[in-house]
Amino acid sequence: MKNLTSALSEDLLQNLLSTLSAKGYDDVRDGVLLAARAGLRFNEIASLNWSALDEAARRLTVVSPKNSQTRVLILSDDVLQALLARRTRLSSTAGPIFCPKSQTSLSRFRNGFPWYTTRDGKKITWLSLRQYFAEWFLKAMLEHPPTAVYL
Q: For the stretch 24-49, what's the b/e string if a residue is b when 16 or more beta carbons lie within 10 angstroms of its beta carbon?
């Protein structure tokens, strides 16, 4: 059985985000943040529209291209701020969050970030970002269990 422990830590995630910004890959940085903080798949990120963002409620409605299921995500402060800053940079409130040029930039890193590896030589991929989210979420649930869970 594969070891599903993520190659990422919070420090490595922050370093990756900084590196992407320094290299001028703000589109990719925003996508990485969505994957790591919200557990979104690559295709879900690439297909997001501004109409899915409810700024007042801090929610993002995602329709999965994989199975057409809809889910609503509560956004963390850093993801909401990144999306609002992105909207300001793009001067757009309609259409795709990641425009065709952004999608090309994202696709360039579809198979990971070849110049970015962990100290033990593991390559960071979109899957490792989702695994990071899953580990973070489980840890948060164990530390602060909800009073009720709705499925």
A: ebbbbbbbbbbbbbbbbbbebbbbbe
Taking the C-alpha atoms of residue 84 and residue 79, their distance in angstroms, rounded to an integer, is 9
**Interaxial angle between packed helices 26-38 and 10-22, expressed in degrees from 0 to 180 and rounded to the nearest 10:** 160
Q: Which domains does the chain have, with CATH numbers?
A: 10-135 (1.10.443.10)
CA-based torsion, 10, 113, 63, 82: positive or negative: positive
Q: Taking CA 44 as the corner, what is the angle to CA 36 and CA 125, rounded to the nearest 5 degrees? A: 45
Report the Cα 66 to chain-centroid distance in Å: 16
pLDDT at residue 79, rounded to an integer: 92
Question: Residue 118 is encoded by which pair of tokens?
Answer: 């962990």
**Residue 135 and residue 6 in contact, taking contact as beta carbons nearer than 8 Å:** yes
Contact present, 116 and 16 (Cβ < 8 Å): yes
Q: Is residue 72 within 8 Å of residue 65, measured between CB atoms?
A: no
User: Considering the chain, what is the average pLDDT of its residues?
Assistant: 80
> Considering the entire predicted model, what is its pTM?
0.79
Q: Shortest CA distance to 106 belongs to which of 22, 44, 37?
A: 44
Q: Which two three-digit tokens encode residue 42?
A: 């690559």
